[in-house]
Amino acid sequence: MAKYISLKSLSLWQQTAFACALLERMLPNYQMFSEATEFGDFNVLRNQLNLVWQRLEQGKIKINYDAQLEKLEEVIPDVDNFDFFGVYPALDTCMALGSLLQGIQESDAATIGNVAQLSKGSVSYYLQIMLASEHQDDEQIVIKQSDIDDHPLMQWERDTQQELIQLLASSKENQQTCQSLKQLATEQRLTNLAIEY
């Protein structure tokens, strides 16, 4: 078993690349929601994430963060307007992308780090809904935090995050590392909720 590495021990570049890789697993959740509801514009999110990848790979890319955050604001779904679960992971994806853009703008590792929490939060909420629906005939059901923490899907999320961190910790800050991260995040073609896309 490889040694656990904390996200905080990575450089700002590495933390940004880590957040981008997590977003690669979250973006299809927004895309599926957008296609199902005809709300929003997946291309806005895709283009913004591509911009950040380019900035990581080339370093010279200038991004107008305020303009990008405004564009993002326009495609964020309001959970009160939609009557199905897909709105929540779509919202989490927008919040995560917003945290990434804001964090880079302010060079703030804590804001960039929110992406990892939002990805885990997405999984946690999905599991709450899923476990509750499995026991809907049982009125006494109480879903404990340990039920969520020990669930294979949450373990997979934690393992994936750690795998990405370990890859970054042992790699140079360059285009090759970005490519490796993207490949690791997308090779199974599963979102962070293990939904195929």
Q: Can you walk through the features of this model?
A:
The protein has 197 residues and is mostly helical. Helix content is 68%, strand content 0%. It contains 8 helices and no strands. The chain has helices spanning 12-37, 42-58, 65-74, 87-105, 109-134, 145-149, 152-169, 175-186. Helix 1 packs antiparallel against helix 4, helix 1 packs across helix 7 and helix 4 (87-105) runs antiparallel to helix 5 (109-134). The longest helix is centred in the first third of the chain and has 26 residues, at 12-37. The chain is globular, with a radius of gyration of 17 Å.
Condensed summary:
By secondary structure, the protein is mostly helical. The protein has helices at residues 12-37, 42-58, 65-74, 87-105, 109-134, 145-149, 152-169, 175-186.
Structural descriptors:
single chain; 197 residues; mainly alpha; 8 helices; globular
Helix share bin? 55-70%
Number of helices: 8
Element pattern in H and E: HHHHHHHH
Structural class: mainly alpha
Mean pLDDT: 95
Biggest beta sheet summary: none
Rg measurement, Å: 17 Å
Low-confidence stretches: none
Spatial separation of the terminal alpha carbons? 30 Å
- The quaternary state of the protein chains shown equals single chain
- Overall number of strands: 0
β-strand percent reads under 5%
- Which term fits the overall shape? globular
